[in-house]
Amino acid sequence: MASVLIVGASRGIGLEWVRQARAAGDRVVATARDDEGLQRLRDLGAVALKLDVMNTASASGLAWQIDGYAFDQIALVAGVFGSRTTGMQTPSEVEFNTVMQTNVLGPMRVLPQLQDALAPGARIAIISSRMGSISLRSGSHGWLYRASKAAVNSVLKDASLLMQGKACCISFHPGWVRTDMGGADGDIDVQTSVAGMRTVMAGLSATDNGSFINYDGERLSW
Ligand code: NDP
């Protein structure tokens, strides 16, 4: 039985991760930012914590909320896409701040608070995106989202070095998943995506630290 923390679990990939971990008998702590999300987590038997990664006070309160826990697996899932623009449309300052604060500042707020809540051999995953890869770049939509996921890949890479020996840190592409964000045309359902990532997480070794990995285990280039 593993001890698992999922950040950003009110719906989509995060909620499915809680569902599968609970079905496997894991002890799960998970976060949401509104009462409906928190209730969904409690209904699945998770310990539900209120957390909005865009809110400084809320995000900085995570450390004391997880005081005493030692997690085997942690997934940072919370993310937003922003508007569906194509090409080089300059985002508004408000949109830039929302996407960057959620997708980049969020993990930068959460990661440091995890350091005293890790079990030996802990694994930490940021749910990034292949759209954040610079070498695999194709397509022209989501300029701001791509920038945010490229930035969070950098954050993950540094975290993997800074936490070396304490945790194996990886960045995931979850696939193009049929969720509110991914839409109905996505390649895979959320069950397949999460099952794949959970299998990859379970099989990680120290040499995987700092890797960028597809949900099916394929290694991706940054
Ligand atoms: P959803 O839109 O279905 O869910 C997004 C989740 O993030 C919700 O739980 C949402 O909570 C939470 N969230 C958003 N903003 C905040 C915040 N400020 N604080 C805390 N939680 C927040 O998206 P997916 O499940 O599809 O995506 C999950 C992750 O996977 C994201 O990081 C996304 O970028 C990534 N991803 C998804 C892909 C896909 O095809 N679906 C492809 C590649 C990457 P709330 O309900 O409160 O809004």
TrEMBL record:
Gene3D superfamilies: NAD(P)-binding Rossmann-like Domain. It comes from the Bacteria. It holds the Pfam family adh_short. GO terms for molecular function: oxidoreductase activity, acting on the CH-OH group of donors, NAD or NADP as acceptor. InterPro entries: NAD(P)-bd_dom_sf, SDR_enzymes, SDR_fam. NCBIfam families: PRK06953.1 (NF005403). This is Short chain dehydrogenase.
